């Protein structure tokens, strides 16, 4: 509570996403190596999302290729990686039914199904 300047209090409910974001950023700031701008937090928790842009090639011969660009059938594909600490995912809607003990049933969804929106094929 003291470290967060009373932003997060014992016994008071807070947003878990806001808390984990604050915790990771605070730990990173205190554990950053002075020689490089990295820490054990970034090494363990940072992921990379590969982004592929498909750009129709211009006919005027004006190529502005980057190092990661490739051409296929007149379409220029530009690939780059974006680092992230937290990736927002669309979770399935809450269940409409309850179990025999009158509690909500938590649906189990495969992680691969949740990540499908990033495969470049699924809308």
Helices, strands, pairings?
Layout: H1 16-31, H2 40-45, E1 47-56, E2 69-72, E3 75-84, H3 111-114
Antiparallel strand pairs: 1-3, 2-3
Number of helices: 3
Give the biggest sheet: 3 strands, antiparallel
End-to-end CA span: 42 Å
Strand order of the largest sheet: 1-3-2
Classify the secondary structure makeup into a structural class.
alpha+beta
What share of residues are in beta strands?
Answer: 15-25%
Shape: flat
What integer is the average pLDDT? Answer: 78
Q: Helix and strand succession?
A: HHEEEH
The helix content, as a percent range, equals 10-25%
Which stretches are low in confidence, meaning pLDDT under 50 for 5 or more residues running? none
Count of beta strands: 3
Structure description:
This protein is α+β, with helices and mostly antiparallel strands and 123 residues long. It has a domain at 1-45. It is built from 3 helices and 3 strands; from the N terminus they run ααβββα. Strands 1-3-2 form a 3-stranded antiparallel sheet, with no helix packed on it. The radius of gyration is 22 Å and the shape is flat. The protein starts with 15 loop residues before the first helix and ends in a 9-residue tail after the last helix.
